[in-house]
Amino acid sequence: MMTPDVKLLKSALGEEKADIGFLNGILFNPFTCEWLKLDFFVKSGIIVGIADSEGDVSGSESSENSAENNPGSGYRAERYIDLKGAKVIPGLIDSHVHIESSLLTPFEYARLVIPHGTTAVIADPHEIANVAGIEGVNFMIRDSEKTPLSFYYMAPACVPATPMDRAGADLDSEALKELAASESIIGLGEMMNFPGVIFGDSEVQKKLEIFDIIDGHSPQLSGKELNAYISQGIESDHECVSREEALEKLRKGMYIYLREGSTEKNLSEIAGIVNCYNSHRCSFCTDDRHADMLYNDGHIDDCIRKAVSAGISTETAIKMATLSPAERFGLKDRGALSPGRRADFCTLADSEEFRVLDTYIRGVNFTDIQRDEKVSFNSVFNAGRLTEDDLKISGSGNARIIGINQGQIITDLIVEDIDSSGIPDLNRDIIKAVVCDRYRAGGCGVGLINGLKIREGAICASISHDSHNIVAAGASDAEIVRAVNLVRESSGGMAAVCGDDSFVLPLDIGGIMSSGSYAEVIDGLKKLEEITKKTGSVKDPFMYLSFIALTVIPALRITERGLFDVSEFSDVPLFKL
């Protein structure tokens, strides 16, 4: 937050030297959406002065350069950096992200995203909270503090996701009061239990009353139900999948986060709602993005490139990645390069392609950081050993099948005439999916899924939003069992099997993150991809798999109890009566 500091006044008035003077930059001003050739001066990591650029200076890092070399600025500094006409923009901000979905610890996540211009993220740690409760949230906060990246955490609103889900923890309103006392917590994370909001559930109401800033989660909610949801103080949504849905929510006063994750790719579809009049209510988020996508495609810089390709102007897109999220979350010390704000910014190597050259945090050019000691975090993993007998289904008739939608986490409820003896039915792309309880031995739900395109082999992971039980799918019972037991024996991970080939990427932090470096995780993901290609699966099958148990997203889901119909908000049998 912007805090009055009398020690900055003399530097701001030009009476004392600043620490650093950045000269000859083409600065983007998100207040006016214009580019200006300016110099700016930094003291103790804070911008204290901005002045018209007066031309080149000799020597980009020389302490001998002074105001006399740059007449008319009125400012002096201990040293100067000549930006040589580079375009300079405020540090980028992700409005909503689950760090755990990258498979990385916060420390490794920071190493990966800062070079892409990111200087702050709004993180909802509800993945680790479902596994380990407040202890898990505190682990994330502690690890974040070891990095220069600013992590602002939202208290997980729904742990477990619904009252019927069985997770490793239960965060009630009293637990959220404890979290709210932390300086690292700035609001309430996505309120996924929209039925609880709409029907006035007393525990949900208690949670809403604790926080001033509240993020939403209301997929396909519309009309009177959306009105009711918003009326309870919920201010945002990142689940819009159509222009019409986003526009209704925007018109009713919600902030809209245009999302582009590994599986949830909604940015291009809803970019058309953004204009110069409403861009202050729109920003970007990545929600769930694997480490390999962050490495190959980027972070919020990638969202800007996609937004521009979808028709949003470069200036508007930059504003949506900087000032808009800062103002939405009350982060008054960032989001723009102006007096009193942090000197968090990045320079662009290629403004046409929007490629980040350097990232500065509090005026310091980011260089890689290394962890001093190995990180560890213990969590419960009590899954029993799976056998083929656990996967048996019997019966015939109209069966409920989970239908995967490419590029979305919303599923379809497909009804097909099925004979259990004919499963897998590869001609119709129907195979088995299974969820096994990782916290207690015994529970195992079996269903059918369409759209993964696995023709041989199986995949399995202990990442299963949001309870993070073991989830698997495959073309044969034997291969499903093999994959599940690989994950179980690793006490969490991602596994793929196909014929004689198999590989497991251990996830030793709560069964959802790796203690390894981002390079090690990316290498493991490549090995998994090599095997999943042999199975014939869709691209990124693990991301689709990880969401089929999420009971707050339409339409049909599967848990350790069996199938769950989100519209009915109840468990349902495989075969319709």
TrEMBL record:
Annotated region Disordered: where? 54-73
Q: Name one GO biological process term.
A: adenine catabolic process
Q: Which residues form the Adenine deaminase C-terminal domain?
A: 411-569
| Ranges of compositional bias, category Low complexity | 56-73
What would be an example GO MF term here? adenine deaminase activity
EC number assigned by the record: 3.5.4.2
User: Which keywords does this Swiss-Prot/TrEMBL entry list?
Assistant: Hydrolase, Manganese
EC class: hydrolase
Query: CDD domains per the record?
Result: AdeC
**InterPro entries associated with the record:** Adenine_deam, Adenine_deam_C, Amidohydro-rel, Metal-dep_hydrolase_composite, Metal_Hydrolase
State the source organism's domain of life.
Answer: Archaea
Enumerate the catalysed reactions.
Answer: adenine + H2O + H(+) = hypoxanthine + NH4(+)
Q: Which cofactor does it need?
A: Mn(2+)
Cite the Amidohydrolase-related domain residue spans from the record.
88-363
Question: Keyword Mitochondrion, does the record have it?
Answer: no
What family, per the record? Answer: Belongs to the metallo-dependent hydrolases superfamily. Adenine deaminase family.
The name on file for this protein is Adenine deaminase
